[in-house]
Design a protein that fits this description.
The protein is α/β, with parallel strands linked by helices. Helix content is about 30%, strand content about 35%. The radius of gyration is 15 Å and the shape is globular. About 35% of the residues are buried.
Length: about 150
């Protein structure tokens, strides 16, 4: 008896091999890939941290959003990496939401042991960008998640 393929959105502030400060990144990266290997259509969404840009992966812009924030609309680029899965005909999508003022920084959450003072704003923005990304997917590709895996922030 087989199981139906599901559309699964995984959202986290870090995931290997893109961005890592601890075990969360290992769990998110491995779980996303394993779900894709089981035949599910997985989209992993992350902030476009500087280390994501520098990860050596082949990101390319696939869309743009205007993300509502308390300070107004924030222009956001959706950067995509395609990860081969299994027989290499199937690929897992990794989307990174790019807004350099929030994420082009030396560290993910802090620098030299001091938390960034705008972390709350940064990750509220990321959460909203993930939701706006789902609207974009629904409108552009008729893709709607069956399951959301949401971590930390």
């Amino acid at each position: 008896m087989g199981y139906p393929s599901l559309h699964i959105l995984v959202a986290a502030s870090e995931a290997t091999p893109y961005a890592k400060t601890g075990g969360l990144a290992d769990v998110v990266g491995a779980l996303s890939l394993e779900l894709a290997k089981l035949g599910h259509d997985v989209i992993l969404v992350l902030p476009y941290h500087r280390c994501v840009r520098d990860s050596g992966r082949s990101f390319r812009a696939v869309g743009a959003l205007k993300v509502p924030t308390p300070a107004g609309l924030v222009d956001t680029v959706i950067e995509e990496d395609l990860v081969p899965v299994g027989d290499r005909r199937h690929r897992m999508r990794v989307w990174a939401f790019r807004h350099d003022a929030f994420f082009d920084r030396a560290g993910l959450y802090q620098e030299k042991g001091i938390d960034y003072p705008d972390n709350l704003d940064r990750f509220v923005y990321f959460s909203r960008a993930a939701l706006e990304g789902m609207v974009f997917l629904k409108n552009q590709q008729s893709w709607r998640p069956d399951i959301f895996y949401l971590y930390d922030w």
